[in-house]
Amino acid sequence: MKGLIRTVPILLAALILTGCPDMFVEGMNNPVDPEADAYQGYETVSNADDISSNSQRGAQWVIFTASEVDGATAYHLQVTTTGDGAFAAPIVDDASFSTNVMAPTGNLIANTTYRWRARAQKGGAWGAWSEAATAIFADTAGMSPADGASTTDTTPTLSWDAVDGADRYEVQIAETAAGVPSATPVTVNAPVRSYTWPTALSAGDKLYWRVKAVAAGGTEGAYSSIASVTKSYGIGDTGPAGGIVFYDKGSYSGGWRYLEAAPSDIDVSGDYTHVWGGYGTSVGGTGTAVGTGQANTTAIVAKYGTSDPYNYTGNYAARLCDQYSYGGYNDWFLPSKDELNLMYQNRGVIGGFAAHYYWSSSEYRSSNAWYQYFYFGSQYYGLKSSNLRVRACRAF
Predict the structure, then answer these.
(1) Where are the domains of the chain?
(2) CATH 1.10.3470.10 fits 149-231, yes or no
(3) Does domain 5-136 match CATH 2.60.40.10?
């Protein structure tokens, strides 16, 4: 680009005198004020038929500033994604701007790299397009709950930090991330900077949302990144498979956070007691801690297969749980020793337990495995060939 010179205060005065629109309300950073924090800078050119664009990074307000062309009557702005090298499908294609400071609508998104270009109209003819520049707009700060958070509140309040100069905020909310861009915006008038979801959420329900600021003159901020919040499960809630939640470890790790118990004991043709299986044959490596039940069950079934090597039955405790299907899920397992104890501690909310002995998936040695008496709560190890009750659980 030839003849480029830095903009000087005289140009700023000229912009004001010639009617540069008041993009911001009082207190907002003026994008063409070189003393302001949000000043991005722009360039003038000596060739009135040429125009240049600058890169804007970090500003939240969606404002594109091109060099001013003396005598120009209109400016044309195109904004596209980084993959659209020829501007064949621009997101913004607006030739209605009367000044070189252009504030388009178009729901641009924060933390996204855009390519843009501009040209000026003079004497009824459009000049050449500028070289393409990039723009990345800042995200909305202080969004709460944080992305991926869970809440016990059935009607969660979504909030964000105030944006200087905002007259109002527009919030889009949907049940899926893909649904957010097409959701009807909810308007929140400043200085309020929060919105409470009006419909009670059930455990496991998720909301996706984003927000943008809008100035009194209509200048838009970039939409924030999409955040999500999930209604957490409480002990006693019905889990996604229709079981009863009896454990919450507080956060997701290893692909799960909660444990739910099947609503009833496993019976085979009316028989509620079953062997652990494999008396005299060690599985080895089973754990007792919370979070080990699934691995224990997998190891037991891998070792004994479709028929345990002592009782010669496929209806042994671990395999019954492994084969169990309920609520559209088939990832149930025999709880470990500590998981079984949590089921005992929450037996009142789970329901359906007998005052009987229940197997865990934790092996003690080749002939014994851990079980729990659901009348007193005591845990013992007993012969694997004993017939005890079985209650499956699953992690999610």
Answers:
(1) 5-136, 149-231, 244-395
(2) no
(3) yes
Each residue's pLDDT tens digit, 88-99: 999 999 999 999
User: Residue 197 pairs with which residues in a beta bridge?
Assistant: none
**What is the DSSP code string of 39-108?**
----EE-S-TT---B--EES--B--EEBPP-TT--EEEEEEEETT-TT-SS-SEEEEEESSSEE---S--
Q: To which H or E segment does residue 347 belong? A: helix 347-350
Give the number of other Cβ atoms within 10 Å of residue 380's Cβ. Answer: 12
149-231: same fold as 5-136? yes
CA distance 283 to 54: 68
- pLDDT tens column, 141-171: 999 999 999 999 999 999 999 999 999 999 9
Candidates 109, 106, 65; CA nearest to 89 is 106
Structure token digits, residue 236: 């006693």
Sign of CA dihedral 90, 96, 102, 104: negative
Residue 331: HSE in the Cβ half-sphere, 13 Å Cα cutoff: 12
- Please answer whether residues 20 and 7 qualify as being in contact, where contact means their C-beta atoms are separated by less than 8 angstroms: no
